[in-house]
Amino acid sequence: MGEGAAGAARVVSFLTDYGLDDPYVGEVKARMLSVCGEIRVIDVTHSVERQNVLHGAFLLYLSYRFFPEGTVHLAVVDPGVGTERRCIAIRTRRYWFVGPDNGLLYPAASEDGILRCYEIDLDAYPRYGGETFHGRDVFGPVAAELACGASPKMREVDPETVQKLDFGRPVVTDRGVRVRVLHVDRFGNCITNLRADELPSWMRYGDTFSVRSAGKEVRARFARAYGEVQPGKFLLTVGGTGFLEVSVSMGDAARQLGVRPGSELVVEQNEVGSVDRG
Amino acid sequence: MGEGAAGAARVVSFLTDYGLDDPYVGEVKARMLSVCGEIRVIDVTHSVERQNVLHGAFLLYLSYRFFPEGTVHLAVVDPGVGTERRCIAIRTRRYWFVGPDNGLLYPAASEDGILRCYEIDLDAYPRYGGETFHGRDVFGPVAAELACGASPKMREVDPETVQKLDFGRPVVTDRGVRVRVLHVDRFGNCITNLRADELPSWMRYGDTFSVRSAGKEVRARFARAYGEVQPGKFLLTVGGTGFLEVSVSMGDAARQLGVRPGSELVVEQNEVGSVDRG
Amino acid sequence: MGEGAAGAARVVSFLTDYGLDDPYVGEVKARMLSVCGEIRVIDVTHSVERQNVLHGAFLLYLSYRFFPEGTVHLAVVDPGVGTERRCIAIRTRRYWFVGPDNGLLYPAASEDGILRCYEIDLDAYPRYGGETFHGRDVFGPVAAELACGASPKMREVDPETVQKLDFGRPVVTDRGVRVRVLHVDRFGNCITNLRADELPSWMRYGDTFSVRSAGKEVRARFARAYGEVQPGKFLLTVGGTGFLEVSVSMGDAARQLGVRPGSELVVEQNEVGSVDRG
Question: What pLDDT shows up at residue C271?
């Protein structure tokens, strides 16, 4: 195997809810380097909401696709650590995914195409302290082994037994579509569960729509770039995420709409004859 | 080219206003690694104030000089993403700079010495989603190509057409100098736009000066180290940044002075015969 | 020397109180890469409380052990920077430690076994700006030199002269033990100074104990995993840190107890005949 190929095969992406204020992320990396000195770890984020598996699954789903083929995706949001939930590794078409079997890995892995699933043999991975840090003691070492081409201690299981999870389906109504906000980013962009390839046929670039949250209603233009509307105005975009987003040019849509992850929004067509006040 | 030289040439420095809570920084790195598996990315900071180009330009200016020759500086603070602002790469004496043509790169690049400028050919870099994430879809891949010695799709342009930006000049008055705070760091140090090599001749180490913000006035000793004054006392230093800073030993000068980035401060000599109450 | 060995020998762990919002961490890494292009830097954390040497020493102590042999641990929490406190490097059984001689390195280094100590020759390391950023100007370059097998400018000193520091001893009382909280993590876990190998003989897994903070008293089960108690219930664990922790399953123990780093807690046995209301 050539150097280039080896390099490409040794990337580990890393996503958790550990935060960066504690030494936990560093400890996992230290353990991984102890297992295999040749890996490269790329942090996706460690700011998943604490123990929010859905949130973690969504951020992993957004980001996994940009990594080079052969990347091992290590993801840990694990409120059930130490209980009977399994530790798993999933081989997909282009990647490996390693983490707890609680749905976290499923949306990304199933989209990429699950080939094989494995249950990690916990007895083979010693814990330092109690059963509270499988990221460092189990998942990290397994991810490092996979990235380096070693064989972790695990046994194949039926892919159908893997815990499933989905982001909810947008609900099409008479004149609009009801979507769920799955993530609010630093810029206040509200990222919804409506994928670009599922946009209603009546949503056309340049048109203006109404966006309703609980108690608020604004008008937003469907645009390709923030700069297409005046600063302070709402817009709808297919953001860099590939999902419909609600934004404010040079502003903070989430704050203005009072929206948080989990909130619902309704996007509606203009009434016939309505005047665009946007 | 030897291994060492190659290693030195493949560093990418990375500065944005993306924050670390979203997967954006990870996605850019993932794309870069997909373009070139051999690069090393060093984060400068991703906490530039949202869409504050001046702030980003200053932090880039402070830090770029410490990187090894050949480093590609990737910087993205880009409120105009998707509009007609250009995507550029600048070759300087020791480095490359890649980012939006909105002034962000100018102070650092011009200080290092601009040799050539290029406009990136947007058609050559596919966007995933809309025109909202050129960091991942355009700038990152171009930076990775440059770091690896590949040839990005771009055409040379007149360096004079690059958007300029400066940090404002300190204003010398009768008895003092009026400076602008460009950054407040974690320790509450207020970093001003007065460079060490432009200090007034009357500023001598060991002397005490008055420092005025809007509505507050304190006395501060010009010192080489925080420990030269008592805990809780104000001091002036030429900090690790190479600019004049206002600090409090073991305290938070910004909070005590009510100062934020953009605030003005006046540093004045003692009146003749004044008693040093510091 | 084989590739693997070289790789393993060139890891630098990095812990500071610099935060990630300023360019300081990036500048130190840039300087290190300029000294030696082959090192790998792993961030432990940069969120040590500002200028809190005890807090930094504890986080270093928790994490250093997970790094591969030969790692250079670079740690900087340095309120005395620029004063007469020494800059030191310590050779231990498995590692190097580099930082200020203020106790920060001592608990980790002494546990690993101090072999030799060195005082860094400040004259050999030029400062950019004043005497305020030895992390970038002195410690970083020395750590990089050590990681690459170069010889920093330093002279051997008596290990007995190194500044000592300890985390305080738990105090055993009639019916319990008084411990100090040394760190509160993102999940609200309160990590104490009671080590797993020093647990009182009366603490047995599955039993329930009383935990008192100033003004609050709760009952907590001594468990191996968070999931062993109901969500919202307190528990005691030997966490991933190897120290006794007080936690709430799916909750935030520090907030509920009103506890911060430095707070004291008392863990007591049940009274004979008491009814477990936990």
Answer: 62
Is residue A275 in a domain? Answer: no
Can you point out the beta strands (E) in C145-233? 154-157, 171-172, 176-184, 190-195, 208-213, 216-222
- Decide: A173 and A102 in contact? Cβ < 8 Å: no
pLDDT in tens, C158-211: 999 999 999 999 998 878 999 999 999 999 999 999 998 899 999 999 999 999
Strands A40-45 and A11-16: parallel
What pLDDT band is residue B119 in, cutting at 50, 70 and 90? very high
- Tell me which residues of chain B, numbers 3 to 62, contact chain C at a CB-CB cutoff of 8 Å: 4, 7-8, 11, 13, 15, 20, 40, 42-47, 59, 62
Phi-psi region of A61 (alpha: psi -120 to 50; beta: other; left: phi over 0): alpha
Residue B197 and residue B147 share a domain: no
Domain termination site, one of B112, B140, B161: B161
Is A68 touching B (CB cutoff 8 A)?
A: yes
Inspect the interface and report whether the beta carbons of B22 and A185 lie closer than 8 Å: yes
Domain count, chain B: 2
Q: Based on the domain organization, do A212 and A86 belong to the same domain?
A: no
Count Cα neighbours of A46 within 13 Å in the Cβ-side half-sphere: 19
Measure CA C83 to chain center. Answer: 24
Residue B181 and residue B131 share a domain: no
ipTM: 0.91
CA distance C79 to chain A (A): 20
Same domain, B145 and B34: yes
Nearest C-alpha in C relative to A85: C227
Residue A248 Cα distances to A187, A190, A218, A252, A264, angstroms:
9, 10, 11, 6, 18
Shared-domain flag, residues C200 and C71? no
Query: Tens digit of pLDDT for each residue in A26-74?
Result: 999 999 999 999 899 999 999 999 999 999 999 999 999 999 999 999 9
Is the separation of the CB atoms in B114 and B92 below 8 Å? yes
Q: What is the CATH number of the domain that holds B257?
A: 2.40.30.90
Per residue in C41-90, pLDDT tens?
A: 999 999 999 999 999 999 999 999 999 999 999 999 999 888 889 999 99
Q: Which candidate in A11, A71, A187 is best for mutational testing of the B interface (most B CBs within 10 A)?
A: A187
Query: Do C155 and C48 share a domain, yes or no?
Result: yes
d(CA A228, CA A24): 42
Instruction: For CA atoms A182, A184, A185, A191, give the dihedral sign.
Output: positive
Coil, helix or strand at residue A181? strand
Q: How far apart are CA A175 and CA A172, in angstroms?
A: 8
Q: Residue A149: give the domain boundaries.
A: 11-161
B70 in Cβ contact with B85 (< 8 Å): no
Contact between B25 and A63 (Cβ < 8 Å): no
Q: Residues B69-80: what's their mean pLDDT?
A: 96
